Amino acid sequence: MPGGDMAKPLLGRRNMESNPDLAPAAGRTVGILGSGDFARSLATRLVYSGFQVVVGSRNPKRCAGLFPSAAEVTAQADAAKKTDVIFVAVFREHYSTLCDLTDVLAGKILVDVSNNTEINHHKESNAKYLASLFPACTVVKGFNVLSAWTLQSGPRDGNKQVLICCDNQEAKRIVAEIAQVMGFTPVDMGSLSSACEIENIPLRLLPAWKIPVFLALGLFLCFYTYNFIRQVLHPYIREQKNKFYKIPVEVVNSTLPCVAYVMLSLVYLPGVLAASFQLHYGTKYRRFPDWLDQWLQHRKQIGLLSFFCAALHAVYSLCLPMRRSHRYQLINAAVKQVMEKTDAWIEEEVWRMEIYVSFGIMALGLLSLLAITSLPSIANSLNWREFSFIQSTLGFIALVVSTLHTLTFGWTRAFDENQYKFYLPPSYTLTLLVPCTVILAKIFFHLPCIHQRLRRIRNGWEKGRYVKFTLPSATGEYSSGESSSNV
Amino acid sequence: MPGGDMAKPLLGRRNMESNPDLAPAAGRTVGILGSGDFARSLATRLVYSGFQVVVGSRNPKRCAGLFPSAAEVTAQADAAKKTDVIFVAVFREHYSTLCDLTDVLAGKILVDVSNNTEINHHKESNAKYLASLFPACTVVKGFNVLSAWTLQSGPRDGNKQVLICCDNQEAKRIVAEIAQVMGFTPVDMGSLSSACEIENIPLRLLPAWKIPVFLALGLFLCFYTYNFIRQVLHPYIREQKNKFYKIPVEVVNSTLPCVAYVMLSLVYLPGVLAASFQLHYGTKYRRFPDWLDQWLQHRKQIGLLSFFCAALHAVYSLCLPMRRSHRYQLINAAVKQVMEKTDAWIEEEVWRMEIYVSFGIMALGLLSLLAITSLPSIANSLNWREFSFIQSTLGFIALVVSTLHTLTFGWTRAFDENQYKFYLPPSYTLTLLVPCTVILAKIFFHLPCIHQRLRRIRNGWEKGRYVKFTLPSATGEYSSGESSSNV
Amino acid sequence: MPGGDMAKPLLGRRNMESNPDLAPAAGRTVGILGSGDFARSLATRLVYSGFQVVVGSRNPKRCAGLFPSAAEVTAQADAAKKTDVIFVAVFREHYSTLCDLTDVLAGKILVDVSNNTEINHHKESNAKYLASLFPACTVVKGFNVLSAWTLQSGPRDGNKQVLICCDNQEAKRIVAEIAQVMGFTPVDMGSLSSACEIENIPLRLLPAWKIPVFLALGLFLCFYTYNFIRQVLHPYIREQKNKFYKIPVEVVNSTLPCVAYVMLSLVYLPGVLAASFQLHYGTKYRRFPDWLDQWLQHRKQIGLLSFFCAALHAVYSLCLPMRRSHRYQLINAAVKQVMEKTDAWIEEEVWRMEIYVSFGIMALGLLSLLAITSLPSIANSLNWREFSFIQSTLGFIALVVSTLHTLTFGWTRAFDENQYKFYLPPSYTLTLLVPCTVILAKIFFHLPCIHQRLRRIRNGWEKGRYVKFTLPSATGEYSSGESSSNV
Fold first, then answer.
1. What are residue B296's DSSP bridge partners?
2. Which ranges carry the Ferric oxidoreductase domain (chains A, B, C) (predicted)?
3. CA–CA distance from C208 to each of A20, A191, C51, C334 (Å)?
């Protein structure tokens, strides 16, 4: 970004200057207690943004050199005296060491910028704890979502929100103003009781991905075991054939498409369930059960994991002819051929493979379009109809093409007795269950009678109730066009 | 996004509060007529943003539970009385049911948030129609580009523009203010006659992609037919050989590179035509014909489709050795070899393939760089020179490398009589026409004499006219550096 | 973007209108000297944003038609008289032609929008030069980072910063205000001496990529030569075998993984060096040497190039079985097999390849996750902990998996005399040096005693000094959580 480091928000500053009655934020004196990394980055940014900065340290002499020269580094009590807004950049464990300052701090605004190392580590949020130690102060929680690095390098596009909460509106306004002059976007999170939530944000580790990842791992494990038994264990036990070399590549490559395919159908299953739910209760005003709500919200992650598995399956498949085992098998087949003097060409096998390879590539191409439009910067440039066309319509076509890929891969093997190892059917037959249910349900919901009923429900119509006491014109109440987005 | 749901724009609210003479937006009472999805989401968002909300419903009792408790749900006439700004969240078909309210609504601002289900469904925009029904009201069009979901979940990065149009500046200002306090970015679209355009926006389905996609499909169809005749029909008719198994994979894989290659050259052809146009007329002030303008604007989409086809071609090619047919052919070749006792190694064939595979990978690598820098978030982080270097220079190198790939693939086959099936030349010779023209034209435009003339034209020089009555110094008028961006 | 062209920032305008004492920006008369592309685009944008525009041209009659009709096109002196803020859209070479206007321009604000064609082409920035020609004017540098195209099509998301510098605060404020009303984000770059820096920005060509790209090219060249000697030259000289066909594909494909693997380890090496540096000096307050700082800042680019090489390596590898040479070798092997009547199956070779292919795919999968999260729009949606988990933890796992891939690829060949061609060890043994060092160092730093010492240093502890004169509680000074981000 051009001029990242030196970027000072002209607008913010100007606004302040032009409204002198507002106690202009820039030019204001701001205090910082503490001299760690965060304190230093904060001081640097505040100085850049035109504030007077007073740093209160236990050891002002030693620390002075670490702060920008425009900041005044002095004793804690001295710093606290000089300003009304004080950033407390001290670990929670050491809040109590500030208690000597209780008198000097009385009536001032304390900004708690601390984070914890674990989610919900303490019963009480750090900010609440600080407030309980200094009842005469107004504690504002904020700035903790920023890293010292972001503070120093200046706000970039996107990640520049500063979540703020406080019980006092005026104090919140002042701190929000400071954040804005520093180039960040203050976001009001309400009263100080939200501090706990704000403190947990920087500790979150991809929470939306947890369930989908475990789901994918679970499916992988199940299908891997199943395929291992059929492809490796069965020939070893029944025919004493050593097929253990299949463990790293071939068994994985039979497992990945199962996972990808089932996961893809799990993206469209909750929409089908939601529609059935609405049809059954004859209303859209009844809340979905929680598990369905959760599921609907995780569809994007499940879809992306499905694409990831499908892409890995493609790479594994492409690697197959590169391997030694493939080479040796080919040579041995050629040698056998020479001995038997027959022609190696089974027309049916050729067709089967040409077709399923072809469907596989198509499905992968469609899924990659879905994955690309899931990127935030592309999703933001689409209107709702475009997004829904790609994610819902193209996605469903991808599911259908995947089903054709699976069916042509399977061909007639589901009806071949030899394919039932230990009475276990080929794994592709198992994977077909959920997707086919989804596809059939979708077709069912598109039958004219059902489709119309569903549309009426989504436009606000209700079973029973409606007929009795509302006017027909009431259906005219405007409902946004995305009614079909959940299906 | 952290705190998405609860995000209230502090800045907006503060600005309002500090300018009390402005009739502060937040805290203002806002009315909503209607009780559908959109009305509910709108009410929720307005309440979050600090507005007093009055909902007018035909059936207040039944609907009250569906709205946030802070919103007052009452009869339509009652709601209309209580406020000056009223959102009309009712389908166009039911506007006339509001006619009872004509007197109460007189002099108020009506915000039309409706959408249509088809582009240009009605002659008159919904907003114009509403204005004709309520001539005593000021109608503002706006908020229709938002989905109910966006309204409820709060504005995210990017997709938060609210397009507004109105004949009355003051009414437009007030509604823009409300949008801004709600966290959206109001965009002034001028007078109410723009309402039609605004109403069409949510109905657009990737308009910029339509022509490029049809172009790609058209090219695919032509080349597929051509290749089908040469590769499948010819051996069947002339030699009674059954090559129909080539339909799903091999014919597709000969077609895709043709499409990708021609499309890539079509990205650079309009620039060449534009330069010829400028050279011919000796001025840059003459507008390009419309078709050329359109073409220049679709280059990005054509380029991305070219990359998509190239990527599919790569995947298809990589699948070739995985197929049964390949396996059978190999074995049969080995068996034949054994019978004939010769050595299978044609040095020329080996070299041809090593080189064209190598060029193919290079071209794909370059195209993938182009595709990545087309992502909005990356394109935005590049300055003009960087963007032009990648898209124009690297892109042209990709075209040259693709040409080398095609030429080495073809080798001497263009001069081999046996390759002319039904007198049809190999398809690669056909695809070479446009790209080679583009490359030669580019080289021609870089000849010193032509290049200088072109540069002078792009700096404002004009044939004939200029010499006569302008001072030489007039060429000093500053022209931005991107003069070559169109070529 | 909806309504891009017509987008007028309502907010900006309103703000101006509501503070009439501020000399409202919109509605203000703005002058432009020059009639090139940039002048025209600027005029168009200013008119759209509600400004009165006066264009001063040497030849008003001829130029009038090129400007929007709302703009007044007149003689230069006339235009200069009518306004206080004048954009100078003239090439630096022709600044001196404006000297006739010295008297009319006195006391006015001149906005220098010019760019150069080369970095640091002139000793003095264009703005400084303009200021020296017109000492009675206030020169503001700005708007040069915009292209004429951006000006005309209106600001888009992201790339809408306007860097401004000037010695006079009031003039800077006025120009910043104009930029803001036009929909851009003004960024204060300080005094006019920064003009040089601002003028260089549009000329930058991916500066952050220069060193990493040269590093990758250098490594490629070294390893290519090394592999060429071992794989092509050695068999030719020692055994008179013609292996030159390996030049385009096979030698490249042995070189790419070496580059990718070494580059990946170079991403993690500077972190290890930084930790060693901190451990050695026992403090984190000592600045890293410049080369280390530079290196730490280029890790992202080095990592992405590593991924690019790894992806190319994957494509090359997948192409191997597709080639003629592979086909001929297979057939010949089959023929040889038939003659010798043995079974082609070396269990160890099969296992080696299955395992290293498997590790290779895993490493590529992990690296692709890293590459995706490097996209700006995704990186911005992650908090620091998530970003560090993916880039640091997953990245290190990718390094370990790559090492396993390399080791299983190598198998026992490092101990096989025949592999030492011209006494040169196999290239994979060379590539293992840096990565293994990094992995061992990482393990070493995770030994409890070392880890604890490192953590204490990163929390502010210092060797020697600390023990003597600071209180234990001083360690409580708040340090941001990202202390481990550099390792």
1. none
2. 258-400
3. 43, 44, 39, 52
Report residue B213 as tokens.
């996609």
Length of chain B: 487
Contacts of B393 in chain C (CB under 8 A): none
pLDDT one-digit tens code per residue, B379-419: 877 888 888 899 999 999 999 999 999 999 998 888 888 88
- Residues in A closer than 8 angstroms to B10, CB to CB, are 164, 172-173, 176, 180, 186-188
- Higher pLDDT: A221 or A199? It is A221
Q: How far off is chain C from B96, nearest CA to CA, in Å?
A: 30
| A330–chain C Cβ distance below 8 A for any pair | yes
Strand partners, B230: none
Of B313, B345, B50, B319, nearest in space to B178 by CA = B50
B88 phi and psi, to 5 degrees? Answer: -100, 95
Do C188 and C79 belong to one domain? yes
In a domain, A219, yes or no: yes
Residue A5 in any domain: the answer is no
Evaluate whether residue A3 is within a structural domain: no
Give the C-alpha separation, A453 to A457, whole Å.
Answer: 6
Strands C8-9 and B185-188, sheet pairing:
antiparallel
Q: Do C186 and C266 have their domain in common?
A: no
ipTM of the shown complex: 0.83
Q: What is the pLDDT of residues C93-111, one digit of tens each?
A: 889 888 889 999 999 999 9
Same domain, C310 and C447: yes
Alpha-carbon span A262 to B92, nearest angstrom: 43
Give the domain range for residue A250: 207-486
Q: Classify residue C122 as left (phi > 0), alpha (psi -120 to 50) or beta.
A: beta
Tokens standing for residue B51 = 């507005």
Element (H, E) at C352: helix C347-373
Judge whether A433 is closer than 8 Å to chain C, CB to CB: no
Which of the four pLDDT bands, split at 50, 70 and 90, describes residue A458? confident
Residue in B151, B205, B161 with CA at minimum distance from that of residue A385: B205
Domain boundary among C173, C203, C233: C203
What's the Cα-to-Cα distance from C12 to each of B186, C24, C162, rounded to whole Å?
A: 11, 10, 15
The first and second tokens of residue B159, run together, are 């997709």
Sheet with strand A72-75: strands edge to edge = A72-75, A52-57, A29-33, A85-88, A109-112, A138-141
C-beta of residue C376 within 8 angstroms of C-beta of residue A158:
yes
Count, residues in chain C:
487
Do C404 and C270 belong together in one domain? yes
> By mean pLDDT, which of A379-383, A410-414, B429-433 is the weakest?
A379-383
Which of C456, C464, C448 has the alpha carbon at shortest distance from C484? C456
- B324-340 vs A347-373: helix crossing angle, rounded to 10: 140
Query: Among C94, C322, C376, whose Cβ lies nearest the Cβ of B317?
Result: C322
Q: How far apart are CA A331 and CA C334, in angstroms?
A: 5
Q: Which A residues, 346 through 385, put their C-beta within 8 Å of a C-beta on chain C?
A: 375-377, 380-381, 383
Residues B199 and B211 in one domain: no
Q: Say if residues C392 and C487 touch (Cβ distance below 8 Å).
A: yes
| Residue C91 with chain B: CB contacts under 8 Å | 476-479
How many Å is the maximal CA-CA distance in chain B?
Answer: 102
User: With contact defined as beta carbons under 8 Å apart, do C235 and C241 qualify?
Assistant: yes
Domains held by chain C: number: 2
Q: Which residues of chain C have pLDDT under 50?
A: 1-24, 157-158, 466-487
Asked if A183 and A8 touch (Cβ cutoff 8 Å), the reply is: yes
